[in-house]
Amino acid sequence: MQHKMSALAKFLNPKSGAGGDGDMGGGVLLGKSRLTAHTIELLLRSEPFMRTAMEIMGEDVIRAWRTFPKEKGEVSSYHKLEADLDFKKTLLRALYWTDAFGGALIVPRYDKESVGLEDMAGEFDPDEVEGELLGWKVYAPHHLKPWAPNGAREVPVQAVNGLPETYEVKTSDGTQEIKIHHSWTIPMFGLMSSETPKMSGNSCHGMFGESRADLIFTHMSRAVGGLQNMAHLLEKSNIDVLKVAGLAAALAECTTTEEIRKTVSQVLQRAEASVQVASNKQPMVLDESESLDREGLSTGADAAVKMTDTLVNAYVSATRLPRTKLMGEQAKGLNNGGEVDLTHYYNRVEGIREDRCTRVLNSMDEIVSSSLGQEAPPWQFGSLTSVTPKDKAEIEAKRAQRDKHYADIDLPFARTKIATELDRAGVYDFTDQELADIKASDGPIDEPEGE
To answer: What pTM does this model have?
Structure first.
């Protein structure tokens, strides 16, 4: 009979603290069920490394926030509006829920006097909403449940995107349930699921994608289980050797096989008693001509260090985050400063910005435009990497070499363009008259002859 147990029960072995069902078992969770939202909440509350892994990506996404064109008045006004409506905090919360629980829903929050709880059950039309936009509310999937017209026993109605047409969520005081039509929501999706999400009347957990916390936990369970088995093997590979003086002479005096067996049995019993006493760190007595040695593949301390390193490496691999950011330590390897890992990581962050965040922010901008009548300027995310002084000097040297080449071949207006660019970059502070003189020195473009 196969026993059902929670993922945490399989992960924590009562005897060794490692993974597996029995003392010799490993925590290989093939075909395990999805972690419940409650289990993930426990992990985030009790495991700092897991929480860090969920927070790093979102923090880097918003670190270099979006930038706008240089129409100063319009941009500063919209920047203030962003701050008032908590755009950055809202996006950070949505990214955190998405990594931890596999998705998130962002819902605009209006003045309750104008937009009552019942209004959200109908289709959302921001142009028709008269209430003041106050900000946003972010829900994790398990905070919501699909609404069914005749109760949880019936299959909820699906929207065109395959998600529930209407969600149900309790108010913060738990006294009332709010119905939210899907048109009021801006969804953010988690990792692509390997199975078709099932519509359930109890929770939306798992409907928006897979949880990264779930995948990391599974990977770690298998790693811990494998290391536990290795620990048992290392323990069994140790052999205790008791060196006894005169054993060869005693065996030589034996005339029958039975006498040899008894002599060897006595020595083994003596060795077993000595080893047991030595293992319990109690006083023991040996003849000065005897010695007790332990031979094995590795000492316990060395094996523990190696297994700990292996477990850390498995954790870093499962999170797909750079060791320097996750563990606060240098990447391993000769002449390895972690630059390659960081480059791959920032490429992933760029992908998250494009795949998850751009659509969400554009949708939030559209609601702001309809509700407050202020249209968002064109924008793009800021650069994730900063240019070092050395890199900047190399870029300037290449640019100067390029400019010199164009000036030497008398490219029309090259000197004027170069001077204007240097003035804009703050390299030289040209006056308007100086720029006019440089432009005059370029001379007019020669007209073709013969016309």
So the answer is: 0.65
